[in-house]
User: Fold these one by one.
Assistant:
Number 1:
Amino acid sequence: MSGLWSLREACEAVGGRLEGDGAVAPDALSMDTRTIRPGNCFVAIRGDRDGHDFAAQAVASGAAAVMGDHELPLDVPQLLVTDTLAALQRWGQARLEAVRPRHVFAVTGSVGKTSTKELLAAATGAWKTPGNRNNTLGLPEALATLPSGLDAVVLEMGMSTPGEIRRLTEIAPPDLGLITNIGQVHMENFVEGQEGIARAKGELVAGLRPGGKWVHLASDSWCHWVAIQPWARAEAVPVGDGCAFGWEEETSLGLEGESFVLRHPGGQVPVRLRLRGAHHVRNAALAGSLAILAGHDPEAVAAGMATVDAGPGRGRLHALRAGGWLLDESYNAIKESILACGEALLSLRGGDAVAVLGCMRELGAGAAAVHRETGAGLRALGFDRVLVYGDHAAAVAEGFGPGARAYPDFEAMRDDGSGLSSLAEGSRILVKGSRFWRSERAVEWLLSNLSDNLPPGKS
C-alpha cells in the first residue's frame, strides 16, 4: 500500500462516519493545538480537558481535518467515532498492520529508553517513533501515518502503571525487544514494589510475536527474573560477561565520546560513540546485539551507532567559560541515571564538580531513602557540591553532607546567594531532575550566565 491513508480509508479502519471530503489525506495526527501543523488531523481526546473545546483553534492553526465523537461547526472534513482514544489506537494499529515492515523492534526500560531507541534505529536504518511518543496516546498517533515500504521500525514503549506496555504491544506487536534495565521509577504506582515494576516492563516480553527474541543486560537481576517467568515465552538473550554477546575494551574518549569492542557470535567489531558515559556503552551494546540478532551486518551496525548524538535534556554537552562544562540531562531522573551521568561528567577536565538537581518522583514510601542514597552516591563519586530543590531536597543534602544546599523550589535555588549564582566559572555542572521540577530552567539560567553562547531558543 503506497501513500498515507485518506480520511475515507481511515474511516474504514476505525469504523467511524465521515462528514466532508474523504479524499483528504492527513500528513500527521495531533492532539495538541500548540504543535498542530497545516495538513494535520486534529484528534479531540477527552481527558482532564475536552479536546473538542480546542478543535476550532486547531482548524484556525491549519488542521485539515478533525476526528471527534460528535460533529462540530467547522469547515473541514470530520471523522466521527464513538470513542476518540479507541479510534486513535485502532488507526495506528491498523496502519501498522497494513504496511508492516519486516521487523518491528520495541524498546523499554527504567532508564535510557530514548537514547537506546536512537542507537537501535541508527544501527538498523529503521524508522523510529519521534521524540518520546511512547505511551498509549503518542505511539498510535505516530503509527497512524507510518510510511509504507519500510524494512524496520523501532518503537519506544513506556509505562507508569501496570498494563500500559501490554496495551502498547496489542497496538503494535513487536518481533524483537530490548529492556535497558529495570529500576525503581514509578515505584509508588506498584503495590508489589520492584517485582511489580519488573512484571510491567516484562509485558513487552509477553507481547512479542511467536518466535520473538529480546536482549537485556546479563547483570540486571530483575531482567533475569523476567526471563525465567512462565509468561515470558520469548527467547531471552543476555548481553555481558561470559555471554555470546557482550562488550570489552571500554574506553572513555572524554569530549569525543566512548569506544568499545562489541562481541557477537561471529566475532568482534569496534564501536565508537559520540555519546558520553559508560551507561551509553551498555545501551549501545544492547542495541548493537539486537541489531545483529536481527541479521544486520556488524560493521554497518557499528557505523550507524557512531552517528548518534545527544539531544536536548538527554546528555547534550555545553562549553562554559573558563574551561567549564554543563551536561544537560534535564529531561528526567532516577537514582541510577543521576549517578551514571555524574560519572560521565567527572571524566571531563575542569573545576569543581557540581550536581544541580530537581528531585525524583513516584518513588513511594522509600522516596526519602532513595534521595539520601543519591546524595551519598554523588559524594562517593567525588562531587564537590550539590544544589537540589523539591520535596525531598533535604534528604539528598543529608546523604551528600557538607557542600550540599537544599531548596523548596527552583526560584529559591536561583535567587539565593548560595545557589546558582554561587557557581564559579570553570565548574563542571550536571543538571538533572524529574519532568515535574522542570530542571531545564536551570540549564537556561546557567547558559545565560556562565556561557558565551545563548541558550537554545533564546535571542
Number 2:
Amino acid sequence: MISTTTNPEEQALLQAAFRSFDEAAHTLQQSYSALTARVEEMDAELAQSNDALRRQLIDNEAMRMRLDGILESLSTGVVVVDESGVVTRSNRAAEQLLGASDVELRSRYIQEVLADRGLSVSDRPQRIGQSVVSISQVPLRNDSGEDSGHLVLFQDISRIYQLEEQLQRKDRLAAMGELIGRIAHEIRNPLGSVELFASLLQRDLGEHQPAQRYAQQISQAVRLMDGLLANLLLYMRPVRLTRAWHAAEPLLQDSMELAAHAITKVPVTTRIHISPEVPSIWCHDGQLKQVIVNLVVNAVQAMPNGGELEISLSREPSQTLGMSAVRLTVRDSGIGIDPAHRSRLFDPFFTTKEEGTGLGLAIVHSIIEAHHGRIDVESTVGQGTACSIVLPHPSVVESPSLTANPGGEAEHVSDSEPTVREVVLMEDSSYD
C-alpha cells in the first residue's frame, strides 16, 4: 500500500520542482527550436554557397575553355614558361613550328628547345623549315602584378618576308632590265658588222681554203649571239597578252610532250593530278606552256639520278590573290635549292649551271607577273622542290568585262589587259 504524504512543505517542494522542470523543458524546447531554425538557415546558406561555387566553377571552366580556344586559334605560336625557364604550356601553332607536341615540350628548358633548332629570341627573321619567323619574349604577371614567368611568341612572317623579297626582286629586275636593254642594243650594232664582214670573207675565200671554216664558225657564233640578244630585247619589250579559257588536261599534256626531251634522259616517274573543280585555266596557252616546260625541265635536271615528278592543279583559296584562283604545282624529289640562292632564283643571268644563261626562271617570273599571278617556291636541300603558280580564275560575275564562255573560245581582252613578253627561249638550266 502506497502512502500519500500530506505534508504541505513537501507538496510545495514537489510543485516547485515540477515548475522548474517545466521551465527547463520549455527552455530546452525553445533552444531546440532555435537550433533547428539555425541549422535550416545554415543549410540554406550552404546550399546558396554551393550553388554560387558551382556557378563560379562552371564560369571558370567556360572561361578556361574559351581561353584555350583562343590560344589554340592563334596563328602566333605561344609557349608559356615559368620563372625557372621551364615550358609549362604551348599552343598548336608553336607545336607545328617546333615540330613537337605539348607533352614533348613540357618540363624542358625553353633555351634548350630553341638551341636544338638553331633558334634564339630575336626580332631578326629566322627560318624554321619552310617558315620564316621572328621570336620575341614578353613577361607574364599574376593578379598581384608580380612576374610569374614569361611568354615566348613565334610570329610567322613568311608572307611578309616573301613580299619584301618580291619587292626587292622587282627593283632589281627593273634596274637590270634597263641595263640589259641598253647593252643589247649597243652590242647588236657592231655584231651586225661582224656578221657582214664574216659573210664577205666566206664569199671571197674559196670553198676549199681552210680559212673559210673559221669564217663559217664566226658567222655561226654571231647568229647564236644575235638570237640571245633577240630574246633579251623581246624579254624587255612588252606586247599585248590575249587570254582565254583553255582545257587543263590537254594544256598539261602538250607541255609534258614539249618537255619530253628532258624527261626521257633520266628515270623519272611522272604523275599528273587535275582537280575536277578546275577543268580549264584562264591564261595565254603558249606562254603558260612555256612556264610549265621550263619548270619541268628544271625539276628533271634537279634529279640527275631520277626520281618523282608530280604536277597538280587545284583550286586556291580566294584570299591568296584577293579573287578566285587556281594553283599549279610542279614538285620534284631532287637535290633542292641552296638557301643562299633562294632570293636570286628569278634574277636574269643568275644560274648555277655552266651552260645555262640564267634566263629561264626570269622568263617564268615575267609571264606569271603578266597574268596577275604569283609564284611560290618551297624547297628542302636533299628532299626536293615545289614551284607553285597561283593564277586568277575569273568568273563572269567577278569580271563582267570578260566575255567568258564555257566552250574554251578566245575571249576579248580590253586595252587595260596586262602585258607579257613574247619570248621563245627555252632554257635547260637547273635551280640547284
Number 3:
Amino acid sequence: MSDTPLEPENTQGDLTQFEREERSGPTADTFRSLHELIDYVSGKSLLQLPQEDSGLAEPLPFPFLAIVGQREMKLALMLGLVNPNLGGILLIGPRGTAKTTAVRSLLDLLPQVERSTCHYGCLPEDVETGGIAAICPDCARKYAAGEPLTTSDRARLVELPLNSRLEDVVGGINERAAVEHERMRIRRGILAQADRNLLYIDEVNMLADEIVDAILDAAAQGLYTVRRGPVSATYRARFLLIGSMNPEEGHLRPQILDRFGLRVIVQGLEKQTERLEAYRRVQAYQANPRQMIAQFADEIEAASEEIQAARQRLREVTIPDNVAKPAIKLVQKMGIDSLRAEITWFEAARAHAAADGGTEVTSEDLKTVAPMALRLRRSPFMTEYIHNQQGEEEELDSLLKTLGKKSRKKNSSALQK
C-alpha cells in the first residue's frame, strides 16, 4: 500500500473524467451510450484477488461486460434485450469464443416481467382468451376474488437441452393431474416456460427438424396449440430466441437461418494483449468468483439501467422515410428477397437509437447494425434457380403472343344500361 496521503475532496475538479469514474464508480449517467460502456469495461484493469473455495452452492455466471473483445456479439445481445422484436440472434463461430458464456452472462441484465405464481403457469390473459376454464381451479378462485395471479420478477434464461424430445418442448399430458384425479390438463412445455423470457439453443444446427420447426412456428406466431387426444391447450410463446452454432459441426437449414434476425460472426481474439487479458479475467473468476464479479458490479448496474431506460424509450423511436427508403434500396441492390431483412434491420436500428438516447433513427444507427442484420441473407441457390427459370418464362411469354388476338365482343346493350 502506498504511503501517499489521500487527496482532499476539493481536488476532484482537477482529476480527469476517467480518474473520477475509477474513484466513484460509474453510473448510468456516466455513459452516453452502450458503446461507451462496452469500450470502458474492455479496458478496465482487474485487482488482485485472494483465492477462495470455489465449492459454491449455485454457479455464478461470468460477468457479461468482463468478456474481452467481441464487441459486436455483446452489442447484439444487449440490443436484443432492448427490443425483443428484432427477431432473435444467432451466434456463429468456432469453439472457445465465449458464445455460450456471453448468453449465460446476461442474467444480471435481464428486465423485469410479470410471472405466474401458479404451478401450471396460469395467467390473466388465459382467461381473456379461453375463459375461466382455461386456468386451474385454484387460480379461478383467486381470479374471482380479485387476487393477482402474477408477480413481478426478472426475466429468465431458458435453455433448451440438446436431447429434448418434442413433448418436452411443446408439452404433454400432465401426469400430476392424472395421479391426483384432477381434470386432465396439458403440461406446459419449454416453449410456454420461455414466454417473456430468453430461449437459448446451443448447437442449434444439431437439433432434430421437428423440434426446430415447432420452435420457429411458435416464435413467429407468439403462441402455439398442443393437442393430445381430446385435450388441447394454447400457450403464449413470446420470447427472444438466441442460438449458437459451430459451422464445423453442420450447416443450418435456410428456413431456420432466415428466422434469426441478427447474425453475429464470432471469431477468436487476434491481439495478444486481449488474449492475455481474457486469460487473466478467467483466472480471477475461477480463483474468486464473487469478488471478481463485484469488480464489475457498477458497470453491470449501469448497463441494466441503460437497457431499462432504452426499453421505455423504444416505443417513441421512429424511422423517417428519408432514412428508410435508401436502406430498402440497399437491400434490393444486394439481391435479398426476404422481407425479414429490413424488418430486422429497422428494429435493431430502433433499439440502437433508443440505447443512445434518441427518438429517431439515423443513418449511423443503420450503419452500425447493418452487418449483423444483412449478412448471410442472400441465397445463391434461389438466384441460380430464378435465372434458369427465366428462359422458360420468356418462352411462355413468346408463345402466348402467338395466340389469336380476337377478344370477346362486349354486350353494348348491357353497357348502355
